[in-house]
Design a protein that fits this description.
Layout lengths: L2 E12 L2 E12 L3 E5 L6 H8 L7 E6 L2 E2 L8 E4 L11 H11 L4 H14 L15 H13 L5 E5 L7 H16 L3 E5 L3 H7 L2 E6 L2 E7 H7 L4 E8 L1 H8 L3 E9 L5 E7 L5 H11 E8 L4 H13 L9
Helix pairs in contact: 2-3, 2-4, 8-9
């Protein structure tokens, strides 16, 4: 799959602080890419480099097959966590001002803004001042300004902060629609449930380094420790006895409200899944068999904690 963005061995230092340490990642065209990490991990520095706001000390950024240059910024839409609207200006006037800065004619900008304002049901805000809007309302305006010129790459930094669940879902729907229309999205957030809903791939940065990269489902599978849950009708004791040699942990859950026996277990070897299923099928009437994938919250915590564990230093001889 073609990458719209490639970050290659990028490092950045500010007065003795290593903000980024040899970071590399590939962002596929037409996907939602999660950029995750604790506060101070280096995400904002990387976003500033991608936006050509600052330059790396070493390494390079490739945009659409060529080294990133200032003119590429026209093809990037950036919604920063720190919002940048002028509070005394009217909403429509300000949106039109930013649209013109991004190269749209007044007529095209006005037409596109009216469409977006209607779509997000904020047409009545056109003549209000920004200072009259709530944080969430102002964020809708800035979202429109970010996507209006149809950039190929969109970067959203904590886009749902200040939103109630209803408006957050509206924004999620719009982000997925933009992706389906061909845009690529980099999505920086601490909200792991949003990562599960929206992101195809992620990179997790901790202490300025890339500690985890990949497809979201593949990563959750990798952190699952081959755990499964089985629901069945039949003799629970016999089933447990027969699959015990193939599992490391087994947890009987008793009978659920539908009268099904449930048991959870972890495989000794991932390749044993068919063998376990075949053995269980011979003992009982299987109604459900599901992999138990960890949430992205769990993955995030385990990956960061693992990275933070102190190195074991062998004793001197």
């Amino acid at each position: 799959m073609e990458n719209i963005l490639e970050v290659k061995n990028v490092s950045k230092t500010y007065t003795g602080h290593k903000a980024l340490d040899d970071i590399s990642l590939d962002v596929p065209q037409g996907k939602v890419y999660g950029l995750l990490g604790p506060n101070g991990a280096g995400k904002t520095t990387l976003i500033r480099i991608i936006n050509h706001i600052t330059a790396p000390d070493s390494g390079e950024v490739i945009f659409d097959g060529h080294p990133l240059v200032e003119s590429d910024v026209r093809n990037i839409g950036y919604l920063p966590e720190e919002r940048g609207l002028y509070k005394k200006m009217k909403v429509g006037e300000q949106a039109l001002f930013f649209a013109r800065l991004k190269g749209l004619s007044k007529a095209d900008a006005t037409r596109a803004l009216k469409e977006w304002f209607d779509k997000l049901e904020i047409s009545s805000w056109w003549d209000k001042k920004i200072e009259e809007l709530s944080k969430g309302m102002a964020q809708k305006v800035q979202f429109i300004i970010t996507v209006l010129h149809r950039p190929r790459l969109l970067i959203f930094d904590e886009p749902f902060s200040g939103f109630d669940p209803i408006n957050a879902n509206i924004l999620k729907k719009e982000i997925l629609e933009l992706r389906d229309q061909g845009a690529t999205v980099i999505f920086s957030t601490h909200n792991m449930s949003s990562v599960e809903e929206l992101c195809d791939n992620i990179t997790l940065i901790n202490k300025s380094r890339n500690i985890l990269t990949g497809n979201v489902r593949d990563i959750r599978t990798r952190f699952s420790n081959h755990r499964y849950e089985l629901a069945f009708e039949g003799n629970q004791q016999k089933l447990i006895a027969d699959i015990t040699p193939m599992v490391t942990v087994i947890e009987p859950l008793g009978t659920d409200r539908d009268g099904l026996n449930r048991v959870r277990f972890a495989l000794r070897d991932a390749s044993d899944v068919r063998l376990v299923l075949g053995t269980a099928n011979a003992d009982a009437d299987i109604r459900a068999f599901n992999a138990l994938l960890p949430s992205m919250d769990e993955v995030f915590i385990r990956a960061v904690e693992s990275c933070n564990e102190p190195a074991v230093i062998p004793p001197a001889l």
